[in-house]
Input
Amino acid sequence: MANAAAQPPTRRVPIGNTEERYGAVAVGLHWMMAALLVSLLALGLYMVRLPDAGFDTLKIWLILYHKSLGMLALALAALRLGWRVTNALPRLVENLPDWQKVVARFVHLTFYALMFALPISGWLMSSASGFPVSFLGLFDLPDLIRRDDYLFQVFVTVHKCLAYALVALLVVHAGAALRHHFFFEDDTLRRMLLGPSHPNSSAPKRPRHVPVVPSA
Output
């Protein structure tokens, strides 16, 4: 009984964002979008390796599936942006250098730009090719532009470049989050998890090092 009483109370994750951490809705949208984007990138990279000759049934099915998931990603991005502008943005960890604060905000905004630009460029690419885009098989979306073979090739290149940019940004983002979690031991990653934040970890710690014993 004494040990149970001595333990600090568990703080529940709030629904909305606070100055200290992201809320349950933002966390859920973040990880759903992360899983969806990684799946779309993996699917896209696999599709481009399949042969274009003839009408390959597997490739056609994967393209349709990819386009439907891309429209789902666009809808989730709009929902996430709507939640973002109506909720407070948690402050960055204390003692973070100014240049890292600028980079963190830049990466955050670039993610939003790519979350919209990638599915919209894919939608434009599909419209230019003359094939409609279905939203999860429920209904077809209207074409954004008329059929145009030249524009189709342009948007293929744009879509591909944006996809590789997203891959690079995901690597940088994940690497920075893991670095803060394991190297500086601050709350950067924990604030985007559903578990409670560490009570005294808002400020980054000094990197751990092995003490050097002076020679005699």
Summary: Residues 20-192 form a domain with the Fumarate Reductase Cytochrome B subunit fold (CATH 1.20.950.20). Residues 1-9, 199-216 have pLDDT under 50 and may be disordered.
